[in-house]
């Protein structure tokens, strides 16, 4: 079997998950190169994951490697530039969330990929997480009746890298980092539903950051003539490891799923051990190590699907256009948090370089 060749850009936490997922779960793909700005980090990442070559110069990678897919796991402010350069070199692109920092960037990324007949695949793993997908299938069968409310929460004590806390690089705070998951999942559950309004309440309660570290966002959809209220709770201020849960409320039933609880063992260790789960912190005392964390979150399934789309020339179920739609909701949420009022959709971006500027503008 001729394998699909992949180059991973990045050497941080999410790049680690992508590299492991390809190696263990996507045999039809082969990671042939990786890029990181720091040559030592790039070389270490390549050695750790058995990747043949590493680069600290992206142009050199594009010139020397005959890869089919460029998988972008870089900080948010680099997404646009590296996507445009990869598509311009006739590579398909997988890009981690959020898609980019502005809607103008999103439009250019989508346009360049379309012009070069390359796929732009938006890596939203909640659309592939097995537990959540099982809930979606049951809900779509009619088991809970007409859905009137969705809830999703993702909370932990803060990101791995400093750049997340710098809005100039990240575009904002926890909404850019994790709220995007909820917004994408709401759209995934309510395919074809129109967004009517967005409201956000954002605050900074714990971290040294110019962005928000605690956010509640409400989105009103209209589906089949009925309002569906969607509530996202996202926080970098919650201790004790990762929480990731969904709730679906219908007029004939309810469905709950928890991405992490139910996949763990119970361990007591006086001295601690290597790893329990994402953002869990110390591993001494009683802990709950998660089994097959990446698989339960949907990363391997997501990447396997994207590789199959390239191999079989299929349309991905989550595209750059979906990433743009999520970014529009993010912009509206920041504007709503600044105004202290609902923002009607569609939302036209008001000349900003990053979404959080909308909140700052309206709070003045």
Textual characterization of the structure:
The chain is α/β, with parallel strands linked by helices. Helices cover 36% and strands 25% of the residues. It has twelve helices and 15 strands. It is globular, with a radius of gyration of 20 Å. The protein starts with a strand and ends with a helix.
SSE topology sketch:
Elements: E1 4-9, H1 13-25, E2 29-35, H2 39-49, E3 53-55, H3 58-64, E4 69-72, H4 79-88, E5 92-96, H5 103-115, E6 120-123, H6 130-140, E7 147-155, H7 167-170, H8 174-189, E8 194-203, E9 214-223, E10 226-235, E11 243-250, E12 253-258, E13 267-269, E14 285-287, H9 293-297, H10 299-312, H11 320-339, E15 343-344, H12 356-363
Parallel strand pairs: 1-2, 1-4, 2-3, 4-5, 5-6, 7-10
Antiparallel strand pairs: 7-11, 8-9, 8-15, 9-10, 11-12, 13-14
Helix pairs in contact: 1-10, 4-5, 5-11, 8-11, 11-12
Annotation keywords:
Rossmann fold; 364 residues; alpha/beta; 2 domains; 7-stranded mixed sheet; Dihydrodipicolinate Reductase, domain 2
Could you tell me the strand content as a percent range? Answer: 15-25%
User: Would you count the extended β strands for me?
Assistant: 15
What is the level 1 CATH name of the largest domain? Alpha Beta
Report the CATH topology name of the largest domain: Dihydrodipicolinate Reductase, domain 2
What is the general shape?
globular
Number of helices: 12
Structural class: alpha/beta
SSE string, helices as H and strands as E? EHEHEHEHEHEHEHHEEEEEEEHHHEH
Précis, in short:
With 364 residues, this protein is α/β, with parallel strands linked by helices.
């Amino acid at each position: 079997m001729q394998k699909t060749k992949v180059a991973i850009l990045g050497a941080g936490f999410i790049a680690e998950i992508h590299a492991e997922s390809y190696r263990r779960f996507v045999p039809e793909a082969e990671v042939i190169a990786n890029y990181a700005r720091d040559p030592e980090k790039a070389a270490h990442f390549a050695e750790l994951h058995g990747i043949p070559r590493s680069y600290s110069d992206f142009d050199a990678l594009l010139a020397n490697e005959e890869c089919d897919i460029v998988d972008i796991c870089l900080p948010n402010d680099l997404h646009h530039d590296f996507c445009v350069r990869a598509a311009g070199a006739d590579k398909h692109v997988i890009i981690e969330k959020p898609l980019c920092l502005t809607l103008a960037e999103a439009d250019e990324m989508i346009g360049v990929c379309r012009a070069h007949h390359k796929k732009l695949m938006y890596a939203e793993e909640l659309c592939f997480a097995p537990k959540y997908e099982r809930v979606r299938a049951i809900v779509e069968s009619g088991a809970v009746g007409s859905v009137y409310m969705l809830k999703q929460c993702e909370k932990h004590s803060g990101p791995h890298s400093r750049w997340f806390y710098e809005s100039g690089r990240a575009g904002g705070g926890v909404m850019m980092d994790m709220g995007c998951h909820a917004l994408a999942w709401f759209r995934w559950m309510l395919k074809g539903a129109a967004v009517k309004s967005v409201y956000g309440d954002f605050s900074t309660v714990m971290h040294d950051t110019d962005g928000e570290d605690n956010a509640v966002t409400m989105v009103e959809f209209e589906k089949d003539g009925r309002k569906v209220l969607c509530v996202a709770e996202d926080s970098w201020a919650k201790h004790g490891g990762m929480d990731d849960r969904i709730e679906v409320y219908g007029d004939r039933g309810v469905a709950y799923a928890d991405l992490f609880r139910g996949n763990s063992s119970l361990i007591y260790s006086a001295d601690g051990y290597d790893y329990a789960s994402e953002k869990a912190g110390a591993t001494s005392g009683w802990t709950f190590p998660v089994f097959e964390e990446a698989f339960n979150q949907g990363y391997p399934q997501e990447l396997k699907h994207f590789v199959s789309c390239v191999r079989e020339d299929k349309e991905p179920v989550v595209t750059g256009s979906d990433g743009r739609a999520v970014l529009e909701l993010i912009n509206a949420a920041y504007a709503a948090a600044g105004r202290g009022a609902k923002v009607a959709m569609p939302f036209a971006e008001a000349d900003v370089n990053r979404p959080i500027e909308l909140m700052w503008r309206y709070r003045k």
